[in-house]
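Sharing in case it's useful to others searching the archive later.

Someone asked me privately for the predicted structure of Large ribosomal subunit protein uL29, so I'm posting the question and my answer publicly. Question first, with the sequence:
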Amino acid sequence: MKQSEVKELSIADLNEKLGALQKNYTDLKMAHAITPLENPLQLRGLRRTVARIATELTKRELQ
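And my answer, the predicted structure tokens:
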């Protein structure tokens, strides 16, 4: 998810996506610990998307 897509979402949508992506990231991380993923770059992409959404939420709270 690109930053431009994140900016278009409402706060409620961002919170909902953040929860879902954090759960997905945790599940993927656990699966990778047991059996290596075919594409471990998925973890990095997911982690960065979570960070983008969290940053946008913090930015909106400060405004």
